[in-house]
Design goal:
Two copies of one chain form a homodimer. By secondary structure, chain A is α/β, with parallel strands linked by helices. Chain A is about 40% helix and about 20% strand. Chains A and B meet through helix 3 and helix 4 of A and helix 3 and helix 4 of B.
């Protein structure tokens, strides 16, 4: 599978979030070509503020590997991570982060902060942005347009 | 109870983390003078990178109140929150954050970032630092000194 195939799967997960009334963001963690953990944003449905897709995917991957260091794992996520999730990516020492759409208002990778390129922190993952960017961005736009109706 | 009484309780929780081999950080969430949730750092013992004291306290408080908005709640924590936890505090809309020791290497409230005073983010809690600072700081110092032996 190629990056855009993993991102297509993350988009399917994002759709599940939208179906439950949550902002559509999907994430997965890949190790040695295998999908280790999948998640989608469940903040509204679980009523827990930290239940973003990335947080749940990281937690599930760590439980599966029985270790908190995810140095051999890659995170795919449909939207640029926020500060909380970028901080969790540093904590988890993820090898790389691949995302789709930018988040100009709250993105902490390139938009309002550049946390994952900060030399003062003890980990800097590889970064790839813009994978299936248009599809990821359109799913979010449609969700908010629908909600305004 | 006064702020330093809540912080003394957070220090007791921090000691439990140390007893399990985790960096001693304790946290609690208070609402209307009542302790709603307690937690300590369980990153090493649970082997989950996101299981900092603050994250667990926020999650437990949200589950208890059955809502993710913690606008009427105050977080007490023995150490200045990191980026992940500061991001979670914004997500949870906590009313105030009271902490003990500064974290010059990773603190995201006043040390390396000032996330909770950032006008671009959609929430800024009240901030109080230095409550039982010396006790909080000494517990951490002793833990690391012990570990180096």
């Amino acid at each position: 599978m190629e990056p855009k195939d993993y991102m297509a799967r993350a988009l399917e997960l994002a759709q599940r979030a939208a179906d439950c009334g949550d902002v559509p963001v999907g994430a997965l963690i890949v190790r040695n070509g295998e999908i280790l953990a999948e998640a989608y944003n469940e903040k509204e449905s679980l009523k827990v503020p930290s239940c973003h897709a990335e947080m749940l995917a990281i937690e599930r991957a760590a439980l599966k590997l029985d270790r908190w260091r995810l140095i051999d794992c890659d995170l795919y996520v449909t939207l640029e991570p926020c500060l909380m999730c970028a901080g969790a990516i540093v904590q988890a020492r993820l090898r790389s982060v691949i995302y789709g759409a930018k988040d100009p208002k709250a993105g902490a990778v390139e938009s309002i902060y550049q946390v994952l390129s900060d030399g003062r922190l003890n980990h800097r993952p590889l970064l790839v942005s813009g994978v299936l960017e248009q599809e990821c961005s359109e799913m979010l736009k449609n969700f908010f347009a629908e909600r305004r109706k």
